[in-house]
Write a structure and sequence with these properties.
It is a single chain. It is built from 20 helices and 19 strands. It is of the alpha/beta class. A six-stranded mixed sheet has the order 12-17-16-15-13-14, sandwiched between helices. A three-stranded parallel sheet has the order 2-3-4, with no helix packed on it. Strand 16, helix 19 and strand 17 form a beta-alpha-beta unit. The radius of gyration is 25 Å and the shape is globular.
Length: about 600
């Protein structure tokens, strides 16, 4: 009797929870699935039908604001989009207000055109709204990859989107879903992982973070998955400039290209990504930006990508020495919008001629413009009842403590503990004295890396509002704890523990390619000086990739790979002092030496805790 009743209750409960599950799934499906971009075709095609060839080509054109000498070019050249490149700040200075004013000034010009189609303004918000002073700077993707936390990645990009919208801008050239296969590449840190599975798991959440479930939400930002495809698979020595890998040639068969480098795009497209940036690089000697099989057959036809393709910065120029011919090849291959920072007039004139000569069919132009207009309609840009100017009320949350808190959480979860002898970590907050050393302990620029304020990044005090490791340690410890500091690590005698922060100095594309990944002599010396004091030494490494550690790892009692964590140094002290346990797992294999890269010092997925 008892058991009988028990079973009835259990059955009832099961049915109820199954129902609840179904209902909640229904809700997440309904709320979680963005409308297909092609559902905006009726509006897009009606507008297209009213457009002249010049108006259509204008929509396919994106100059960099820094090369627009006369703002009336916006109406004369019918520009559909504008970007700010890595160092393309407003002339009035790099403040939030100056950015919003710049955006508004440019956007207002579109009201002077016949069709009044708003401009899509794009920027590299690749780890926060990183061009703008005072923005929260998040860990670069390599660190986010080590969190293995899709919900956190989505939250990070949600905050980034909100900070981007505070400047009026509606488009981020992110996420980078590269799958870097050789850590000598200077863009390794822009990729979540060398492992396609990790990239696959984080690409969709990153896109959803930017775009939300509805692009028309005023807090949504158009995402751009980049750089399609194989940017992380180029051969060492195949670089366009110099001897490295950047913009080089991926020499792999199609099965490998798909297995390794396509996974992130499959997920990004499933999440409704509205734009994708083809890569500068080549695949078996052919520039991706001119490859119809990749751009049209795989991306648009096979994966069903309904958004538009934006070429990389002057990438079309590399397809053929004859610029006009290069444009024809790229547009016919499936490129929809061209990032033509300074040569926009030449590009527009050439493309018009190519259409008149029949080299580029009108149907290709119409397809490109339909794709761009779909996105503009989906984003609510064509909604006449809605202001396209900056919502100045968003300045309140820009760089706010709430936003910094999300970054701090991302920093904590991205840290990978590689060594912890004799339970050196966590440190006690009541410890008598900590000696802090190393060139990066009090250097926000080194902590943020490339693509921060400047295109290549810069050492030093680059942006207000952040917290260096030294400052974070001072905040974390008890009132009785003494903190001493020397850049070179000397003077540590008598301290109860030492913390040395070393690593790479900022770089971005091209400049970051390296043949060897040795630590700088001053970093090795700082660790040795600290160790000479006979105290337990904690080493924190800032780097855009695993480095060759040689003797430093042996000298360290504890070793933390912190990647390029961004402005929130307190995420590091949260872990150092044991408020939060370390949980990051390597998203790249850590090699013993560059020459023997298959001889792992630490394997993919490695990471200790306490
Ligand atoms: C721009 C970058 C761009 C680079 C390309 C720089 O001047 O600021 O955004 O990626 O040129 O070469
Ligand atoms: C980079 C892209 C970037 C673009 C605009 C290029 O040089 O490869 O990642 O989005 O510049 O700054």
């Amino acid at each position: 009797m008892r058991t009988h009743r028990y079973f009835r209750w259990a059955a009832l409960l099961c049915a109820a929870s199954a129902l609840a599950f179904l209902v909640s799934r229904q809700i997440t499906l309904a709320a979680g699935q963005p409308k297909p971009l092609s559902s905006f075709d009726p509006q897009a095609k009606a507008l297209l039908a009213r457009m002249t060839l010049e108006e259509k080509i204008g929509q396919m054109t994106q100059p960099d604001q820094e090369f627009i000498k006369d703002r009336s070019d916006i109406e004369h050249d019918l520009l559909g989009s504008i970007l700010s490149g890595g160092s393309s700040d407003p002339k009035e200075g790099n403040s939030l207000k100056a950015w919003a004013d710049l955006y508004d000034r440019l956007q207002q010009h579109t009201t002077l055109t016949r069709l009044k189609i708003p401009i899509l303004y794009g920027v590299d918000a690749v780890h926060g709204h990183n061009n703008v002073l005072g923005a929260v700077i998040f860990p670069h993707n390599i660190g986010l990859g080590c969190t293995r936390n899709p919900a956190l990645v989505e939250k990070v990009e949600r905050v980034t989107a909100e900070e981007v919208r505070a400047t009026g801008i509606q488009w981020a050239f992110a996420p980078c879903v590269a799958v870097p296969q050789d850590i000598r590449w200077g863009r390794t840190y822009e990729g979540f992982s060398e492992d396609p599975e990790v990239v696959k798991a984080l690409a969709g959440p990153a896109v959803r973070g930017f775009q939300g479930t509805d692009l028309a939400n005023p807090l949504s930002v158009l995402a751009c998955a980049k750089h399609f495809i194989g940017d992380g698979g180029t051969a060492f020595g195949s670089a366009r400039k110099g001897t490295g890998l950047d913009q080089g040639d991926a020499r792999v068969d199609e099965a490998t290209l798909r297995r390794v480098h396509l996974q992130g795009y499959i997920e990004a497209v499933n999440a409704g990504v509205g734009s994708i940036m083809p890569s500068y690089s080549s695949w078996n000697g052919v520039k991706v930006s001119g490859n119809k099989h990749l751009l049209t057959e795989i991306l648009k036809q096979e994966l069903g990508f309904e958004g538009f393709l934006i070429s990389d910065y002057n990438a079309i120029d590399q397809i053929d020495p004859d610029y006009k011919k290069a444009i024809g090849i790229s547009i016919n291959a499936g490129m929809d919008m061209a990032m033509v920072p300074s040569k926009y007039k030449e590009y527009e004139a050439d493309l018009k001629q190519l259409v008149q000569e029949g080299v580029v069919p009108m149907s290709r132009i119409d397809d490109a413009v339909t794709r761009i207009l779909r996105v503009k309609f989906a984003m609510g840009l064509m909604d006449r009842g809605r202001s396209q100017l900056t919502d100045r009320s968003l300045s309140k949350s820009f760089g706010s403590p709430e936003h910094r808190q999300v970054a701090r959480e991302a920093v904590r979860e991205s840290l990978v503990l590689l060594k912890n002898s004799n339970q050196t970590l966590p440190l006690k907050k009541t410890i008598a004295r900590i000696h802090v050393g190393g060139k990066s302990a009090d250097d926000l620029g080194n902590q943020c890396g490339g693509w921060t304020i400047d295109w290549q990044g810069k050492s030093g005090d680059i942006t207000p509002g952040g917290t260096t490791v030294l400052a974070a340690i001072r905040k974390a410890v008890s009132g009785k704890t003494a903190i001493t500091f020397s850049r070179d690590g000397t003077g540590a005698a008598g301290a109860a523990a030492g913390v040395v922060v070393i690593g790479e100095t900022p770089y971005a594309e091209g400049n970051g390619d390296r043949a060897d990944l040795k630590l700088a002599p001053e970093d090795i010396a700082a660790v040795a000086n600290m160790k000479a004091a006979g105290i337990p030494v904690v080493v924190i490494l800032f780097s855009g990739r695993p480095m060759i550690l040689d003797g430093v790892l042996d000298q360290a009692d504890a070793f933390v790979a912190a990647w390029l964590p961004g402005t929130e140094g307190e995420g590091i002290t949260d872990v150092l002092f044991g408020d939060v346990k370390p949980k990051g797992k390597l998203s790249y294999t850590w090699p013993r030496s560059v020459a023997h890269k298959d001889d792992a010092l630490f394997p993919l997925g490695y990471g200790l805790t306490y």
